[in-house]
Specification:
This protein is of the alpha/beta class. 35% of the residues lie in helices and 25% in strands. The protein is built from eleven helices and 16 strands. Strands 1, 2, 3, 4, 5, 6, 7 and 16 form an eight-stranded mixed sheet that branches. An eight-stranded parallel sheet has the order 10-9-8-11-12-15-13-14. It is globular and about 65 Å long.
Length: 334
């Protein structure tokens, strides 16, 4: 059976950010309509040092496929030449279960995560939101800037991380790439004060965004913290925001930003107003006033990877991108 292999360097051309934003909105609608099967991810941690391997399987009804993302998460890779998230996405056709493609998971994760934030921002941020703050300077900071440029005409961009040198390099490089002046901020507070869109994309375990820094009417994409014991937003930030998630079950089990504020008694499960797919479908109201602080808590779910991988596979098949190999599938009993 032919299987399409798509390398990391080939993914961006096959998954443009604008197309991915639209695909992520569609797949979250599909999830909200009950046309997907999505168990919680399972993880195996390294016994003697930080690091894990995660398995994220799913069935997707539209486009119909089965799939799995397998990814390693190595926090100590931050600041090195290696991505902290590495792995592959495998997609299978649903009728016979034949493997269709194996696609680099780092590239998909980098693009689709930011694309979901782009879809959230397009729906939840104020129409005139044009002042962006990014906390973090890694892969997700890079792709989130691209996604925000796709959904809002940015007037001002500020960036901060704990490394002043990383901030300087990010500001210089991304200013040239996007034709917008990216300002290097000296503190997280300086970066976010007055911002109308805030993206937190750090590896922080403790809060780096405080509630009293956030301007009325701001929209926040909280992306970096993805474990029950880590958070980027303090309790005040969680409490004052209208909270939306990619999936309730994931948030209730995995989102430290939410769970730690809940543990302190500041919020309850009802603080989750809805899933993004429900907002996209018009079932749940998003922003209700110009002064609302809206918050999308991103964890990343397997149906997003499947939808992105299926789009890549279709385009690769049409253009003969990647490499096609023969790889099993036929019964040896025939």
């Amino acid at each position: 059976m032919p299987v399409r292999i798509v390398r990391q360097t080939e993914v961006p051309a096959l998954l443009p950010m604008g197309e991915c934003i639209d695909a992520m909105e569609d797949v979250l609608k599909t999830l909200a309509q009950g046309k997907a099967v999505l168990p919680l991810r399972s993880m195996v941690r390294m016994p003697d040092r930080p690091g894990l391997i995660g398995l994220m399987p799913a069935y997707l009804g539209a486009p119909e496929c089965l799939g799995l993302k397998v990814v390693t998460v190595m926090p100590h890779n931050h600041g090195t030449d290696l991505d902290s998230h590495q792995g592959a996405v495998l997609i299978f056709e649903a009728e016979h279960g034949s493997l269709l493609a194996v696609i680099d998971g780092s590239a998909i994760t980098g693009i689709r995560t930011a694309a979901v934030s782009g879809a959230a921002t397009r729906t939840l941020a104020k129409p005139d939101a044009n002042d962006l703050a990014i906390l973090g300077t890694g892969v997700q900071a890079v792709t989130h800037l691209e996604a925000m440029c796709c959904v809002r005409p940015l007037r001002r961009v500020r960036v901060w991380s704990r490394s002043a040198e990383h901030v300087r390099r990010f500001a210089e490089r991304e200013s040239k790439r996007h034709g917008v002046n990216v300002e290097a901020s000296r503190s997280a507070r300086e970066a976010v004060e007055g911002a109308s869109v805030i993206c937190t994309t750090t590896a922080a375990a403790e809060p780096i965004l405080m509630g009293d820094w956030i301007a009325p009417g701001a929209h926040i994409n909280a992306v970096g913290a993805c474990f029950p014991t880590t958070r980027e937003l303090d309790t005040a930030a969680m409490r004052r925001a209208r909270l939306f998630v990619d999936r309730r079950e994931s948030c209730l089990n995995e989102a430290g930003d939410f769970l730690l504020a809940k543990k302190e008694g500041a919020i309850g499960d009802e603080h989750i107003l809805g899933e993004l797919g429900e907002v996209f479908l018009g079932r749940v109201p998003g922003r209700t006033s110009a002064n609302d602080v809206t918050l999308f808590k991103s964890l990343g779910i397997a149906v997003e990877d499947l939808a992105a991988a299926h789009l890549i596979w279709r385009k690769a098949e049409a253009t003969n991108a990647g490499t096609s190999i023969e790889f099993g599938g036929k019964s040896i009993a025939v």
